Amino acid sequence: MAAAPAQAAAVSRVLYSLSTRCSIEGAAPKPCVVDAVDESSATLYRHRIGAITMTVRITDTPVRMERWNGAKKTWQPLKEAAARFSTNTICFNGRDLCVVNPNYLNSVRQDRPDATAGRDLVMVRFDGTGRVNLTCYDDGCKEVKS
Questions:
Q1: Are strands 43-49 and 52-60 parallel, antiparallel or unpaired?
Q2: Which of 9, 22, 94, 100 makes a 20 to 30 Å CA pair with 83?
Q3: Rounded to an integer, what is the distance from CA 97 to the centroid of its chain?
Q4: What DSSP string describes 73-134?
Q5: How confident is the model at residue 123 (pLDDT cuts 50, 70, 90)?
């Protein structure tokens, strides 16, 4: 069974904490705090928006993205994620959760300079396990059908 985000924190290391703005389900952005936590096998991004905490887990090998479902006490694969570099915004599963996070997007640019140079929008779609199965950039994303 997957460890809950709170349990994982006991053996984790906080990489950074960022005061920023987040929105849930397309609502107006609100102040939030994002904690990036290294778990050794993954990085957790805890988004605290008032009394609500939403956690996204990203693994590197292979790249997977999942969201913690507190009601079911399990990780659920994301369907898609999109990043817009001009606004430093990342959205998960459409507009279920959006966050302004220049720290994360700067790391994406550093890790993939050839792929991101001159790009504004990058969208990633995932399979049923949360593993990347499609990436598109800018106008190419208009060609991708749901």
A1: antiparallel
A2: 9
A3: 9
A4: TEEEE-SEEEEETTTTEEEETTTTEEEE-HHHHHHHHHH-HHHHTT--EEEEEE-TTSBEEE
A5: very high
